[in-house]
Amino acid sequence: MNYTIESREGLKVTVSDLGAEMTGIHLGETEYLWQADPAYWNEHAPVLFPYVGRLTGGKYRIGDREYQMKIHGFASLSTFEAEKRSENCIAFTLKDSPETMQMYPFRFLFRVIYTAEGHTLKIRYEVENPGQTPAEDTPGRSANSQSSGAADGMLYFGIGGHPGLNVPLEDGLSFDDYYLEFGDRCDSERIQFTPACFLAGREEPFALEDGRILRLRHNLFDEDAIVLQNMADSVSIRSDKGRKSVTVRYPGLPYLGIWHMPKTDAPYVAIEPWGSLPSRQDIVEDLRFKPDLLRLGSGDRWHTEWSITVS
């Protein structure tokens, strides 16, 4: 089922309870969100949880036991419970179940909250490890401060967003007329991947024009996604030939994926704030020892917020 929220300024956002996935971001006559044309990519903006990216052989392990899970986890295939809180805010909740336990042997509560304010859509992720001891809500990445093992009730998870954004945004312009502009000058690094899209175990400097600009062209994505770290915490899609733009802010998430379907002329770009990374090539990862994953002790909670602003 689709739900719609709207800001007083006319930003209209549609979200499905299947995957808590945005299916529209509309202002005036412009649709900013990719509309899932199967000729290129049949999704809009999947929510990535409890893993980001690929697992070797579709498997991971906790100690000696292996589990199967699909790329980007199972949230995008799950039906969330919806709670419309106001005309401009809606929350979606997913909890562990016998079905999730088969592929992810952890108790959890995952909530996605969408709030439309002005021309900005705020996206808040909340994760809780259900337990007996109340805990303070811990913002950002301090969830990683926990280090004890799964036998001690730890919850290990990855998380991220994957919204496709239409490019071009205006008639008469082309994909190549646009560029990405980061909010600040930065010395970003590109995380290297194998041809099969697993971590290669190294990073390389990724030069930006004037430390801020990446000009879009379709062949940027011939080898799949560009994944950056040490970049600014916001990026905008712009064209000097047009007036419309999109800005994505992600202050609590350390990685950014930039993608469209490889070796195509796809008219969108996905701007993907990630909290964690995929697996290494040919290694069935033990989640207890994967350093980029988030960790929560029993009873602990974590949250982060990112946003999409359109103009």
TrEMBL record:
Tell me the domain of life.
Bacteria
Q: Which Gene3D superfamilies match?
A: 2.70.98.10
**Coiled-coil segments, which residues?**
none
Instruction: Note the Pfam families from the entry.
Output: Aldose_epim
Q: Extract the CDD domains matched here.
A: Aldose_epim_lacX
Q: What is this protein called?
A: Aldose 1-epimerase family protein
Q: Please list the GO biological process terms of this entry.
A: carbohydrate metabolic process
SUPFAM superfamilies annotated for this entry? Galactose mutarotase-like
| MF annotations from Gene Ontology | carbohydrate binding; isomerase activity
